[in-house]
């Protein structure tokens, strides 16, 4: 099996979790209500834990240690999609992003538990239980606010329209995906996208929100191969600010 | 020469730092204890929630307990080989959680359906007339509920 293919998959998984985890953590202390403050903070902690588990697998394959991978790389070395790096915006945007992202992540994790690469399957089996709570949270809030007031519905609809092109960018293909699919490690991104659309449509059908027309939207690709928005560098600077004060210190 | 039983007795004293009545053995995070023919003690542990900041603390507590008891050679290692879930909390563990005021997680078959979060038994008045307020709480492993009977919030060790 091509080790490079596995590594590229692990980097994509880990970087997405790390960057969205960091964004979620920005709600700590400023959430619109206490429960949401705690929810986003908890999901941030979970997602950082997930990224650590994936970086640890990369370390076992000969890459740098998890701290170095998280704190010492340049944006062009990150494989995350642009959706996760966008600023938190207002609460409605963060909620919609969380909804769109975690529905995709839940499908990925189900496949990963069956991955023909045992270390990855074990990690995914462990993590998918945590992810269920993220999905439960996203669905509950989207259903509540997607049926509440004209303001909440309009805000969520606007955020859905804004986030959707970026969300489609989550399914950027990699040069290795055919190989991983034929080796039974991970399916094609197009297959995940099809299931994702089906799943989010089921939830949105219970709200007054409309999914933008797929034909009229241009997906924002590039993140997986290191092409990022202007927002990633400042995020990485902030994330590594304390680490960079003294990278050799003992915690 | 140490025996496995002696090591288990030592480990019974190591508690969860956030739930100080619950031992790590009752929590179910210690998956294996072995004594090699060379008298080396090997303890395998598995994390509860992957992002739980207490895991490192728990590993250190195990190491310190072994060292304090005079175990010369030991190794404590974390692995995902036997992933933890809340079904691994022992009956005694559930009892002490309840007494601590934390609703224990329900035992489930195969995979937990999150519907089991509804109507969690209140640890104070034992009513099931309760409502899930949020699946997130003060630590990663807790959900928050409201008891409609005794009219107070309570926390639950949430099923995973």
From TrEMBL, chain A:
**What is a biological process (GO) this protein takes part in?**
phenylacetate catabolic process
The name under which this protein is listed is Phenylacetate-CoA oxygenase subunit PaaI
Q: Which GO terms describe its cellular component?
A: cytosol
**What InterPro entries does the entry give?**
Aromatic_CoA_ox/epox, Ferritin-like, Ferritin-like_SF, PaaA_PaaC, PaaC
Which Pfam families does the entry mention? Answer: PaaA_PaaC
Where does the source fall among the domains of life?
Bacteria
UniProtKB/TrEMBL annotation, chain B:
What Gene3D superfamilies does its record include?
Fe-S cluster assembly (FSCA) (3.30.300.130)
Q: Which InterPro entries match?
A: Fe-S_Maturation_MIP18, FSCA_dom_sf, MIP18-like, PaaD-like, Zn_ribbon_PaaD
The family database entries (Pfam families) matched by this protein are listed as: FeS_assembly_P, Zn_ribbon_PaaD
PaaD zinc beta ribbon domain residues: 119-158
Domain MIP18 family-like as annotated: residue spans:
5-68
* Identification of the protein by name: Phenylacetate-CoA oxygenase subunit PaaJ
Native species = Adhaeribacter aerolatus
């Amino acid at each position: 099996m091509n080790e490079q293919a596995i590594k590229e998959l692990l980097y994509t998984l880990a970087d997405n979790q790390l960057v969205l985890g960091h964004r979620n953590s920005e709600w700590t202390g400023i959430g619109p209500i206490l429960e949401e403050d705690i929810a986003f903070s908890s999901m941030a902690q979970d997602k950082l834990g997930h990224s650590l588990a994936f970086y640890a697998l990369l370390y076992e394959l000969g890459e740098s240690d998890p701290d170095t991978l998280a704190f010492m790389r340049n944006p062009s070395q990150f494989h995350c999609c642009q959706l996760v790096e966008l600023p938190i915006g207002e609460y409605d945007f963060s909620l919609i992003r969380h909804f769109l992202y975690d529905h995709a992540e839940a499908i990925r994790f189900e496949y990963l538990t069956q991955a023909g690469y045992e270390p990855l399957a074990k990690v995914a089996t462990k993590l998918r239980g945590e992810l269920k709570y993220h999905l439960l949270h996203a669905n509950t809030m989207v259903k509540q606010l997607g049926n509440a007031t004209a303001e909440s519905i309009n805000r969520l609809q606007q955020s859905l329209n804004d986030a959707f092109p970026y969300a489609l960018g989550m399914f950027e293909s990699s040069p290795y995906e055919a190989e991983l699919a034929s080796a039974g490690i991970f399916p094609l991104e197009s297959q995940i996208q099809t299931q994702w659309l089906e799943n989010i449509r089921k939830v949105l059908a219970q709200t007054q929100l409309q999914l933008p027309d797929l034909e009229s939207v241009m997906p924002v690709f590039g993140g997986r191969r290191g092409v990022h928005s202007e927002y990633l560098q400042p995020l990485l600077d902030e994330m590594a600010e304390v680490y960079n004060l003294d990278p050799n210190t003992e915690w | 020469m140490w025996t496995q039983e002696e090591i288990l007795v030592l480990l019974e004293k190591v508690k969860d730092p956030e739930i100080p009545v619950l031992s790590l053995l009752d929590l179910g995070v210690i998956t294996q204890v072995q004594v090699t023919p060379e008298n080396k003690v090997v303890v395998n542990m598995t994390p509860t929630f992957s992002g739980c900041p207490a895991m490192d603390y728990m590993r250190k507590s195990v190491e310190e307990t072994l060292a304090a008891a005079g175990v010369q050679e030991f190794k404590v290692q974390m692995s995902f080989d036997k992933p933890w879930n809340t079904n691994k909390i022992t009956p005694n563990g559930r009892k002490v959680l309840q007494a601590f005021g934390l609703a224990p997680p329900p035992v489930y078959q195969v995979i937990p359906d999150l519907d089991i979060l509804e109507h969690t038994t209140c640890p104070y008045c034992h009513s099931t007339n309760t409502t899930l307020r949020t699946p997130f709480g003060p630590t990663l492993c807790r959900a928050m509920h409201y008891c409609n009977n005794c009219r107070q919030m309570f926390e639950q060790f949430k099923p995973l």
